[in-house]
């Protein structure tokens, strides 16, 4: 499934923080499932989806459509 915006799109990308674990999982799943050539190991995908619930999570929106995310894992003490 191709989620690329049209070339005529003039909407800026907006970044927002997601705090709801269900939203984090849903966004992660949608993006990773659209990239099977990069994320093709099923158990790894399931682990990524579950792990994002506890991470700081930023969502990139373009014209009201989610186009990416960043999940930040705290490695500090």
Write the layout of secondary structure elements.
Blueprint: E1 13-18, H1 21-33, H2 42-51, E2 56-62, E3 65-72
Antiparallel strand pairs: 1-2, 2-3
Provide a quick synopsis of the model.
This protein has 77 residues and is of the alpha+beta class. The chain is 30% helix and 27% strand.
Q: Can you give a write-up of this model?
A:
The chain is α+β, with helices and mostly antiparallel strands and 77 residues long. The chain has helices at 21-33, 42-51, and strands at 13-18, 56-62, 65-72. Strand 2 (56-62) and strand 3 form a beta hairpin. Helix 1 packs antiparallel against helix 2. The protein is globular. A 3-stranded antiparallel sheet has the order 1-2-3, covered by helices on one side.
Number of domains: 1
Helix and strand sequence:
EHHEE
Distance between the termini: 40 Å
Mean pLDDT: 90
Helix vs. strand class: alpha+beta
Identify low-pLDDT runs.
none
The named CATH superfamily = Gcn5-related N-acetyltransferase (GNAT)
Numbering strands along the chain, what is their spatial order in the largest sheet? Answer: 1-2-3
Q: In one word, what is the shape?
A: globular
In total, the number of strands is: 3
What characteristics describe this protein?
single chain; 77 residues; alpha+beta; Aminopeptidase; 2 helices; globular
